[in-house]
Amino acid sequence: MLEHGAFTLLLDTLYSTGTPLPTDRKLLYRICSAFTKRERNAVESVLSNFFFEKPTGFSNKRFEKEVSDSESRINAAQSNGKLGGRPPKQKPSGNPEHNPAESYPAPAPAPYKDLEPKTYPAPPALVPIALWLSFVEMRKKIRKPLTEGAAELIRRELSKLSEQGQDPIGILEQSVMNSWAGVFPLKGKNNAESFDERRRRKSREALGAIAVGAEEVVRKMERGLPDIRDNTDTGDGLRRSPGRPVTRAN
């Protein structure tokens, strides 16, 4: 771990300055924050294994290669600049054996629209999300995509109709079935019972069904238990047992 830290710090300093590291050990130890004997031994081990000393200081083989390649690119760019820029690409000749694709790479394909992430306006809390997504898709099919502003108006209208006793789920289903862009009160149905009242009634019916089922389970359990009511002491020293005559207890 100490050698890894020393190697990283020395290499970072080499690349950031662009010049070889100093040969003064005190400066090298300060670069690596090496103050103990173990830390300084790690620095010496890294210098001997991954760096070499030259007249200007310590360097690294990979660093020298990167500097050489960079200088070659710079010199080529300067030469092209003096000649007026990079030479133009040669146009394909009339040689039938010449393949134009080798000189002109194929353009990158355009991204598919189907792969783009789809965003939907947030659904209201009064309806299931699946029904809301069906309404959003229906709006797209009739070429009236649902924006955030339009979705907010739909949510307000559903909330308003729900307070008036209308069923928001039935209202949205009505719009989806008829391809309506908006939401409207249900037609041809008796809405005397409000949405909240219908929901409470459904809850009471569900609880009643659970209670009936629980009573049936209790009755089945009672029928499966053994009858021990006759296997009791009569008080006169006689004990009754199911299917047997009365006997005197010992």
How would you briefly describe this protein structure?
This protein is mainly α.
Commentary on this structure:
There is one protein chain. With 250 residues, the chain is mainly alpha-helical. It folds into 3 domains: 2-64; 120-192, no CATH class; 193-250. It contains 9 helices and 4 strands; from the N terminus they run H-H-H-E-E-H-H-H-H-H-H-E-E. Strands 1-2 form a two-stranded antiparallel ribbon. It has a two-stranded antiparallel sheet with strand order 3-4. A hairpin with a 2-residue loop joins strand 1 and strand 2. Helix 1 packs across helix 3. The radius of gyration is 44 Å and the shape is elongated. The termini are far apart.
Name the descriptors.
two-stranded antiparallel ribbon, mainly alpha, 250 residues, 54% helix, 9 helices, 4 strands, 3 domains, elongated
**What's the helix-strand series?**
HHHEEHHHHHHEE
**SS elements, strand count:** 4
The overall number of domains is 3
Poorly predicted parts = none
Give me the oligomer status: single chain
Q: Mind describing the biggest β-sheet?
A: 2 strands, antiparallel
In whole angstroms, the N-to-C terminal distance is 89 Å
Q: What Rg is obtained from the alpha carbons, in whole angstroms?
A: 44 Å
List the helices and strands and how they pair.
Layout: H1 2-17, H2 25-32, H3 37-50, E1 52-54, E2 57-59, H4 61-82, H5 100-103, H6 129-141, H7 148-163, H8 168-178, H9 195-224, E3 238-239, E4 247-248
Antiparallel strand pairs: 1-2, 3-4
Helix pairs in contact: 1-3, 6-8
